[in-house]
Amino acid sequence: MVINIYEGQTLEEAIQKAKTELGENIKVLHYEIVDEKSWIPFRKRKKYKVFIEQTEEDTPKFESHLEELYSNIEEETIEEPNTYSLTNLNEDEEPEYEEKNKENIDYEKLLEKIELLIDKKLQNITTPPSIKVSSDGVCSEQINEILKEFTGEAIDLIKFLVEREVEPEVAKEIVKVSCGLDLDSSKMDLTTPTFKEAVYKGIKEKISFTGSFNKAENQLKVITFVGPTGVGKTTNLFKIASELIINKDLKVGVISTDTFKVGAVQQARAYSSILNIPFYTITDSKNLKKTLLELSNMDIILIDTVGRSHYDYWRLGEIKEILSGGTDWMDVVLVLSCNYKYKEALEIVNRYRAFFSINSLLFTKVDETKTPGILLNLPFKTKLPLSYLSTGQRVPEDIKVLNPENLTEYILGE
Fold first, then answer.
1. What are phi and psi of 375, to 5 degrees?
2. How far is CA 132 from CA 143, 145, 150, 210, in A?
3. Which backbone phi and psi does 191 adopt, to 5 degrees?
4. Contact partners, residue 57, CB within 8 Å, separation at least 6
5. Whole-prediction pTM value?
6. Are residues 321 and 391 in the same domain?
7. Which of 394 and 205 is assigned the larger pLDDT?
């Protein structure tokens, strides 16, 4: 970068000199107001020194904004001292000074004001356009980058899934399963006749499912439900218990470790009474081991736990200690609400995994959201299979075993 310096009695004069020599495409990097030396005592004149860089044709022209700069400065009128032509003075004649010539102008403050205006203009010129980010933190540039690989209906489907809060990378992988190469554009497009078939194929290949819970061969089946407060563990545990009893004619027992929440034990006991199944409450690992022995004639034991924040390590440790009295083959189901945003839900899974060996995910409150993208995001990212989906508050009706067919319908809003 070559920098040229030009001087003039005014800022316009110095810039004009630069334009005359370098052309119109110049950039003002900086300027200074300096005192010009004079042989007359106490006679000081000011001059402007500008530092110029020659720019390319397409570079924004800084001087195009100087007119507004000058107009802003001129709003506050500053009278400069009278200037004198030395050629009009006789040798014996002393220059006359009026009182206003002796007034000191605060050039430092003036320079600061000019520099602030210049900085503001530079900021307006050089600030890049803002990047649009959706409410859930998804960057539009990320989506656009993904869409470059696709064409036609594949683009429409990816955009639709992202609107349903499916992560862009997840939407890409789901749609990609049903794509083939479009010869005209050399990009990928759908090979299925409908969006529903495309999503179904992607889900079937990329997402795993446990199917309905069932008894184990030659041993007691123990399933424990864990998760944050308020996700509906107790209610949905009894929905599943009802399904196992009514539809599969299995012998089911329920154990609760939730003696903390007011009314939790009474609610669980009421459900157990309706279903006519054994119900126990325990508070430590020894009692859990003893109770499991008493229920050894059951096909399946369902264990309800107290809801704990995923940030409360101490309380999560307490639950883990109680469950240590269980069997080595105990399955752990993590219960989550469809209302969670993806990043928050992923944080919950990761923190619960630090304490428990999670076997599957159970989602609740799908009826309370219009954007159930979490149903794809979480199993795809964590590689955990899906088990059940709660669709409402009614017991035992509002529970479904998740599979590729009904998950596709929920994702598409059908």
1. -65, -25
2. 11, 14, 21, 39
3. -110, -5
4. 25
5. 0.66
6. yes
7. 205
pLDDT, tens digit, 9 for 90 and up, residues 56-84: 554 444 444 555 555 555 554 444 444 44
Tokens representing 7 are: 């001087």
Per-residue b or e along 82-99, where b marks 16 or more CB atoms closer than 10 Å to that residue's CB: eebeeeeeeeeeeeeeee
The tens digit of pLDDT for each residue in 323-347 reads 988 777 899 999 999 999 999 999 9
Q: Are 211 and 403 in contact (CB under 8 A)?
A: yes
Tokens of 283: 């508070």
Q: Are residues 51 and 180 in the same domain?
A: no
pLDDT of residue 126: 40
Residue 364 belongs to what H/E stretch? strand 358-364
Residue 193 domain-assigned (yes or no): yes
Amino acid at 409: E
Contacts of range 114-122, beta carbons closer than 8 Å, 24 or more positions apart = 114/69, 114/73, 117/69, 117/72, 117/73, 118/28, 118/69, 121/62, 121/65, 121/68, 121/69, 122/62
Asked if residues 342 and 369 have their Cβ atoms less than 8 Å apart, the reply is no
* 139 three-class SS: strand
> Which residue is it, tokens 């075993």?
401
Residue 216: inside a domain: no
DSSP states along 106-119: -HHHHHHHHHHHHH
Chain segment 136-171, per-residue pLDDT in tens: 445 577 788 889 999 999 999 999 999 999 999 999
Asked if residues 299 and 249 have their Cβ atoms less than 8 Å apart, the reply is: no
Residue that terminates a domain, selected from 74, 101, 126: 126
281 and 392 both lie in a single domain: yes
